[in-house]
Structures are given as structure tokens and as C-alpha cells.
Amino acid sequence: MFKKARVKLTVWYCIIIMLISGLFSVVIYRGVTAELESRFRFIEVGLGTRGFTPPQPQKIPPFFEEHLRVTKRRVLIMLLYINGAILVVSTAAGYFLAGKTLKPIEETLEQQNRFIADASHELRTPLAALKASIEVALRDKKIKKKEALDVLESNLEDVDSLNTLTNDLLCLSRYEQGHNDLIFEQVNVAEVIESAYKKIKALAKKKDIKVEIIAEDAYLEADKEALRKLFLILLDNAVKYTPVKGTVLVTAKSEKKYVFVEVKDTGIGIDQENIQHIFERFYRVDQSRSKTNIPGFGLGLSMVKEIVELHRGSINVTSILNKGTTFIIEIPIKHS
Ligand code: ADP
């Protein structure tokens, strides 16, 4: 598809360049031939003056007319050669430029297609499980109330999971579209971290994970909801990927023109091969290690990255396998 579009664009570039070049050639040809004709007439007039006949505009004699014809033809051939060369150069340059112009569009489209394919795949799996369990329950004529309730409970879990996925997808696409609907206001980072912590407190307690927060009151221009989501994802991951009785340490401070937040855990860690991919959409490290046991769709860190970028900040991660992971976020205090 893009090959065709590239060729089409090249043809359009060439048509435009050749039209301009052709127009110039006509003007040049006319100008040069007019000049030549007037010169030949001048020669004729000059000769006439030498023989004491009164100077007056003459018809060009056959001898000069032949010269004029040859010269005109040479000019024409030269212009044709020049136009040919321009056509060759403009085709090559046009093809190169068309490729450059279409590259970002091609990449965006490819990314979108991959995203749609991944999203459909992730949606299809729980839907298939849901359908299968409902069908099995419906076929069982002697199903007991307790069994039916178990099926419904499991279905509800699948629906919840689908709900999370669709919400994450909506959030991610919203963040990817830019910051049109974000509201930047003065936000206290310590408060936002605390409110994110409240949401994962139960899970941390369940796993007996100690979460320590050392956050000074640091204000920055940010979208409160987006920032809360960012810390919620990081804290949730830290707890999710840390085995029981581990610790999670969150520190926040402002320094010069930035707010720095560090989320450090004593969890399973990420190896060097995978660490470079964790911010990609739907990327989950080693399925046997996490995907089957720990819930998630691999969208959290993509959202984190988008949110950080919308706040003109940066995020870094360091990790040692089986020792722990540290995410460091740096966001400018002033957004504009
Ligand atoms: P999800 O947690 O839903 O799988 P994320 O995008 O949040 O998706 O994370 C991508 C992957 O990065 C996770 O699947 C996990 O393997 C890895 N990861 C993220 N945070 C941590 C962490 N704190 N410790 C270890 N691995 C992590």
C-alpha cells in the first residue's frame, strides 16, 4: 500500500517539477530565439549601413536564416537535454522525499494495527473463557445451585478483568492523543502518593509487604488524576512483583526545578534483555514468571510513560534479577 502511495507521490512531485521546468524552458526558448532574430536583423542593418543604404529593419536573408534555424534547433535540443536531466534527478529525489514523507505515517499506522491486533487478542482470551464456562454450565441439566454460583463468580472475575482492560485501553488512547483534556494545577506530590497508596494498601497487607513512604510536600504543575494513576501503577506493580514479606520504599523530594520520585522494591526484578521493552504496550516479562500468576495486561507502564511525557518529565528504571527494581521519575515543577 505504501509502495503504491510512494510511487504516486513521486509522480506528483515529478509532474509539478516538470511543469515548472517546462514553463521556464518555453520562456527561455522564446526569449533566446527572439534575441537571436533581432541580432541577425541588426547584422543585416549594419551591413546595409556600410554600403551607404539607409538603415531599416530588414527581412533576414536566407544565409542567416539557415544559421538561425540551426541555432534555434541547438537551443531546443539543449533545453530538451536539460529537461531530461531534471526529470531523472527529480524522479530520484522525489522518490527519496516521498519515502521520507510517508515514513512517519507508515510507522503510526503499523503501530495502530499492532495495537488493534494485540487488544483484540487480549479481549478474545477472557471472552472465550467466559463463553466456554457459560456453555458448560447451561448444558449441565443437573447443575446444583452452589456450582452455578461458582460459575457466576468466575464469570464476574472475567468481566472485571475485561472491564479493567477496556478502561486501560481507553486511558492509554486518551493519554496518547495528547494533553487536551488534562487539567494542570498545583498538586502536592506527597498527597497524590498517599492517595495512590490507599488503593494498594489491602494488597500489600495481604502479602505482608511493608510499604514505606518518605515524601516531602513538593508542589508541581500537574494533572492530579493522571499523576495519581502514574503512582498507582508503579505502587501496584511494586507490590504485585514483590514476594511476600518484601518491602517497597517510595521517596519524593523537590530539587531545583524538578520533583523526583523513586519507587524501589525488593521484588523479582527484571533482566537486562526485558528491561528495554517494559514500556511497550502489552509487553509482559517472561510469561512463566508473571503472566500466568500475576494479573495484568502489560499496559500499565505504557500509561506511566505517556503520563510522564505529558508532564514533560522522564522515567528511568534499574533492576537486578531477584533483588528488586527501582523506578525514578523526574518531572519539572513548572509545566509551561
Ligand atoms: P502488567 O503489570 O499489567 O503486566 P506493566 O506494563 O505495568 O504491565 O508492566 C510490564 C511488565 O514489566 C510486567 O509484566 C512485569 O513483568 C514488569 N514489571 C513492571 N514493574 C515491575 C516491578 N516493579 N518489578 C518487576 N517487574 C516489573
Describe this structure as you would to a colleague.
This protein is an alpha+beta fold and about 325 residues long. It has three domains: about 1-110, no CATH class; about 115-175, Helix Hairpins (Orthogonal Bundle); about 185-330, Heat Shock Protein 90, CATH 3.30.565. Helices cover about 60% and strands about 15% of the residues. The protein contains seven helices and seven strands. The chain has helices spanning about 1-50, 60-140, 145-175, 190-205, 225-240, 270-275, 300-310, and strands at about 185-190, 210-215, 220, 245-255, 260-265, 315-320, 325-330. The strands form two sheets. It has a five-stranded mixed β-sheet, with helices on one face. A two-stranded antiparallel sheet has the order 1-3. It is elongated, with a radius of gyration of 37 Å. The protein starts with a helix and ends with a strand. Bound molecules: adenosine-5'-diphosphate. Adenosine-5'-diphosphate binds next to helix 5 and helix 7. Adenosine-5'-diphosphate binds near residues 238, 267, 278, 284 and 298.
